Amino acid sequence: MKQKENITLSVKNVSKLYGDGCAYCAETDAVLDKNVCPECRTVHACRDVSFDLHSGEILGIVGESGSGKSTLMKMLYFDQEASRGSYHISDYDTSQSNVFGLSSQAKRQIRNEILGMVYQNPVYGLEMDFSSMSNIAEKLIAAGSRNVGEMTGTGDHFLDKVNIPLNRKFDPPINFSGGMQQRVQIAKALSNYPPVLLLDEVTTGLDLSVQADVLELIKEIQREMGISMVVVSHDLAIIRMLCDRTMVMLNGEVIEAGITDQILEDPQHAYTQQLVYSIL
Amino acid sequence: MLSVENITKSFTIHHLDQTRKAIGEINLHVNKGEFLGIVGRSGSGKSTILKSIYGTYMPEEGAIMYHSKENGPVNILEINDYELIRLRKTEIGYVSQFLKVMPRTTSLELVTESLLEMGESKEHALEKAKDALRHYDIPESLWDNYPNTFSGGEKLRLNIARATVKAPRLLLLDEPTASLDNDSKLKVREAIARLKADGTTLIGIFHDLEFMDGLCDSVFDMSDKALRYVQ
Q1: CA-CA distances (angstroms) from residue B101 to A57, B86, B113, B191?
Q2: Are the Cβ atoms of A259 and B81 closer than 8 angstroms?
Q3: Of A219, A261, A265, which has the smallest distance from its Cβ to B102's Cβ?
């Protein structure tokens, strides 16, 4: 079972409910009104989502706004608690315990040492009033680093990598443009070389040239550091370039999953077809 | 090496409530080192066969048995995603007339990249990539340029270089000579002759098969969604 050892993350039957749920919507095949239970009005933000992420793989997630992509990412990063399901991280624990059930201290350790997260909105990933360098240092200190010289070296390296002029490294991100804030966020997430990186709409709102830089950077870090990634994006062109495999979400559920060119060239589900026909 | 057994592929278009049959009960057999050519009108389903072999399309019926180097005979329609990705990275290549690349990736980086994803070392990959570019007449002055500035013929040769640098056991060519001038077509022909001499198994779709004269071991004509043996 060589492939089994290759699995970095494994998510099984993960659901997120806003509301208590009822006997009707507890059934896995219950028909909902989009993602709302017609009986008890509980919102099923994510419903029975399962997937594996292999070592060094970039997995794409596409879907419209409100399909549950970001909720899923937030559960993976412990920003939100899952209502149901299990989550295994092989770098944390090879005995495959469900990390959803761990103490908040253990979850913090996973966030600091194993996972990197880049949010759609930089406000969630950065301390906007701290300098960019302090933002990176904060992450490195949380991951156990204590040597100031080493930390500033790492900060310089990653800020330079994402094209932030080093003469502005002590400026707080609040003074930066949206694109620059996003790049500082990426530098921060990368700074402790996490084996798993979660990227939520990271190129949205960036101009084309910066977008190309970010894509190049993502490819480079995958290749050179072997980092596994989950990439959420509206942009199918980006998914095509980055991801070997892709999942399509609609109303909180995974409606289609497969190799990216299968999804893009032979989409099975009506919604995926609409999505593919909309590519410019 | 490869047996396509009775495959049928239809496309369901949900918003029109239509199902279109692309190919029906197709059978093909290619031995190791052979070159099989397919001709036929546009829209007859030639590319559907190739894309099914590559795993881009999933036919609803039949089997595609490929004799893999590492795992022996496998059915492309039944293997899991990771095994198919592995086969594509190491054994099966696909060349179309289009070149889809990351923005701002140079031609040298592009070819190097396909070796790096096979796990080659950086130095080794770079040397091999340079050899491949020379081999397919991409002048050194273009190595640091972006492929979207290339001519049609240069793009195509780059595409072939990228696919063949990995020395695939099976190479699928989807109209690689379409929209090329005679000179460029001859260069593609030379490239294919070299691959064949190296023992690569090839399946190719051509509008103008006369260019491949003497190279193909067998030729099929695709019409009315069915294959007919020509020679």
Answers
A1: 19, 20, 11, 22
A2: yes
A3: A219
